[in-house]
């Protein structure tokens, strides 16, 4: 707990009532609560939303390190740049239907060159984001 509180810079605020926390502080506290028992499988829903840049960077490092240690990090995101940069494999959900699962390179082989954002829009057939998820694994 101490290390997570230190990583997310909540050590000084932990004794304060949660009702006094900002949205970002509550997001950090939720992450700490989810990760405190160090599960092998992390399932996180939009974990970066509301985090300051430093905390987002730290969380992404933690996610990558957890996956490198042979564990799995499964997380949803609407930020394609994050998924493209840190995920081993991605999945695209469109209107509740799984449209693709694989690496970004496999998606490029199927759909052509472009950023993950451009490929996502092509797969979903829209210019707006309808839903997505990404995950890291040990492979």
The helix content is 40-55%
CATH H level, superfamily name of the largest domain: P-loop containing nucleotide triphosphate hydrolases
Shape: elongated
Helical stretch tally: 6
CATH class of the largest domain: Alpha Beta
Neighbour order of strands in the largest sheet: 1-2-5-3-4
Overall average pLDDT: 89
Second CATH tier, the architecture of the largest domain: 3-Layer(aba) Sandwich
Characterise this structure.
With 139 residues, the protein is an alpha+beta fold. The chain folds into two domains: 1-38, no CATH class; 41-136, 3-Layer(aba) Sandwich (Rossmann fold). The chain has helices spanning 2-7, 23-35, 53-68, 80-86, 104-111, 116-124, and strands at residues 41-45, 72-76, 89-94, 97-102, 133-136. A five-stranded mixed β-sheet has the order 1-2-5-3-4. Helix 5 packs across helix 6 (116-124). The radius of gyration is 16 Å and the shape is elongated. The chain starts with a helix and ends with a strand.
């Amino acid at each position: 707990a101490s290390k997570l509180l230190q990583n997310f810079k909540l050590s000084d605020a932990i004794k304060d009532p949660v009702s006094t926390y900002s949205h970002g502080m509550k997001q950090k506290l939720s992450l700490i609560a989810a990760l405190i028992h160090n599960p092998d499988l992390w399932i996180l829903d939009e974990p970066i939303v509301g985090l300051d840049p430093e905390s987002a960077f730290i969380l992404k490092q933690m996610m990558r390190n957890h996956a490198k240690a042979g564990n799995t990090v499964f997380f949803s995101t609407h930020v394609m740049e994050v998924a493209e940069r840190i995920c081993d494999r991605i999945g695209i959900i469109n209107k509740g239907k799984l449209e693709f699962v694989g690496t970004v390179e496999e998606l490029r082989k199927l759909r052509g060159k472009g950023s993950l954002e451009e490929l996502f829009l092509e797969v979903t057939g829209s210019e707006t984001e309808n839903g997505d998820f990404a995950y890291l694994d040990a492979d």
